[in-house]
Amino acid sequence: MLTLATEVQVLARFGRALADPIRCQLMLALRESPEHPAHLADRLGISRTRLSNHLACLRDCGLVVAVPVGRRTRYELADPRLGHALDNLRTAITAVEADRTCVEADKRGCC
Questions:
Q1: What is the Cα gyration radius of the chain?
Q2: 6, exposed or middle or buried, with CB in 10 Å at 0-12, 13-18, 19+?
Q3: Taking the domains of the chain in order of start, what are their residue ranges?
Q4: Which of 64, 68, 70, 90 is the 20 to 30 Å CA partner of 102?
Q5: Is the pTM of this model over 0.90?
Q6: How far is the C-alpha of 39 from the C-alpha of 22, rounded, in Å?
Q7: What is the mean pLDDT of the chain?
Q8: C-alpha distances in angstroms, 86 versus 3, 25, 71?
């Protein structure tokens, strides 16, 4: 059983990972299916270098894993429950306040 402090650290790590829109897009894309980096970069319209940095962040957070496939590497969510968590989080936030943009909160640095 996790302590409260450990639970807070885990949630904060998840929040930091999702704080960037590109990492959110990556997590949502990988929720649908595992992908190779080249396809992910094309899909998100970003450079492979930029993608690599974001994938490294998600790997370091323990949210995605790199799976060797021959000479290539495929990325996938570290646990299928993360996909369900993303779905639940997205629908819960949308249900509570779908029209919020966090413009004022962003100015204060809290979002």
A1: 15
A2: exposed
A3: 4-108
A4: 64
A5: no
A6: 14
A7: 88
A8: 23, 11, 30
